Amino acid sequence: MLFRPVISLSSSRILIRSVVVGLLLCVFDIWVDVTLLGEGDLSQQLFAPEPVEVWVRLLLFSLSVAAGLFVQRLYRSLARADIELNSLRSDLEWRINERTIELENAMRKIEQQRYQRELLLNSTSDGIYGLDREGKTTFINQSGAAMLGYRPDELIGKHSHTQMHHSHADGREYPEKSCRMRAAVRDGETKYVSDEVLWREDGSSFRRGVAILRKFVLGIQAQANSKT
To answer: Is the torsion defined by CA of 87, 89, 92, 97 positive or negative?
Structure first.
């Protein structure tokens, strides 16, 4: 698409220019030979019985001029293409910068919302933690972690039933498939479970009433609110 105008639209003009310029240069060269070097008459040089040298000169000059004009037009086309390419590159860089700013603003907003959520959760004395559908802890506030004897980062990503709800008060194993908290989270139900046994990091246990609430926070999560 870029070189089509050079070859198809201007080929006739290039040919005519090359022939005319070549003819003029050839006549000028012969005129120099005649006037300055005294090599015969101009008409004799042009219409000699064997003017091979004249037409060879004409052909060479024509080809030279045609090549020069072609290269000139090609150079101009490449220059225009380079300008268009630079314009496209600048536009692409501008769009990338714009999208980057939008992404940074979105990430900053998400981080601000996360900070506000954590601030709200940590402002209550009740223990609050979130579970995903696999039963892993997605978040827990300071009060909830303190009740269990852990730091919050020690519980994030861990299987909650295995870590804090694995046994009955008498020490018997509490199968996860029988866990009412886990079932409520899995089924997306809202349920209150009274007198639930939770286990601390040091091996001791305590009883709490637990409310399981369905909540959408980056996916379906449930909040377990430990009440005194």
So the answer is: negative
